[in-house]
Request: fold
Amino acid sequence: MSTSLVLVAAGSGTRLGAGVRKGFVDVGGMTVIERAVRAFSGVAAIVERVLVVHPDDVAAVTDSELGARLRALGVDSVVAGGATRTASALAGVEATASTSVDVLVHDAARPFVSADRVRALIDALGTCEAALLAVPSTSTVKRADDAGRVAETLDRRRIHLATTPQGARRALLLRVLRDAVAAGRDGTDEASLLEAAGIAPVLVEDASTNLKITHPQDLLLASALLPREPDRVGFGWDIHRLVPGRPLVLCGVTVPSELGLLGHSDADVALHAICDALLGAAGLPDIGEHFPDTDPRWRGADSADLLRRVVDELRVRGLKPAQVDVSILAERPKLLPFKDAMRGRLRELLDLPADRVAVKARTGEGLDAVGRGEAIACRVVVTVTRSGTL
Reply:
């Protein structure tokens, strides 16, 4: 049987306190709405996806990069919600294809629903007219009286916490939602409205990980549920010739020396290697393509500024530096007295704790251009991890 999905994301989300509606909050480099849509990608029975957003957001979602990503994830249409949750759910169900047999309604604020549980819900709808996902209570449940005292202890074996999606025959759901809106009733979920209409939905056991993002602390819980992307590793290498009349800048620290490094910018060989390593870990073009020596904008540039630009470029891709290991190869001057300052500068530029930054100094043992004191080289290994706003 064909099944349509309605994702409701029309609420204000004021309790989250994120400054934007919670569907647009970034969770590990992806909006809550995107994660919710993506959660259903493995459910073949769902043939249509309708997204319900606040009326003020319809145009912005439809005609934006986010809209393009949502369409790529399978969203077929975006419609305006109503003044209440029930009205928003009705708008979404009315927008589904009339040929759909069943409709699932899902809170987009639940981005971690399991595709396996959704398939179990759809299977249940094959034998009944309405069903919902729900988590059996594992805690002892107390009913309070008006004074806030325990009135009774309920049998937790009969207690379930309703989640979403919740589904029913399309015709039935349309009738129940239309009647509720006409009567001015707003249910907290579709199941309660179906119950009021004399329908007893079947309970399908859900996983406790089907978290609803409502309060700020829920974002912290969400971080533990995010799929873990392996950290990325990048390697950088650079070498510059030593010449008179130039300052010697390494890791953003000016080192007293009769010779400095020749280059279009300040020629900080260490920061250049770090930039290259970060760009490589992110799969981006190298430093030469980002800051070409043919561009006058970068003449005499502070390499610390170049590094900040690279870090910002990673940030917009949801990435951030996690660790840096720097090996500077120089015959002279001796760098030991300056290594602490270099580590401190790198911690500042990369926003890393002390145990995530290493600066080592080696000589060339009298070999090659470094060993002859003609140049300074640097090798860098970085680790880059997935960031986000959690």
User: Anything to note?
Assistant: The mean pLDDT is 93. The first helix runs from residue 32 to 38. The CA atoms of residues 325 and 358 lie 5 Å apart. The longest strand covers residues 232-244.
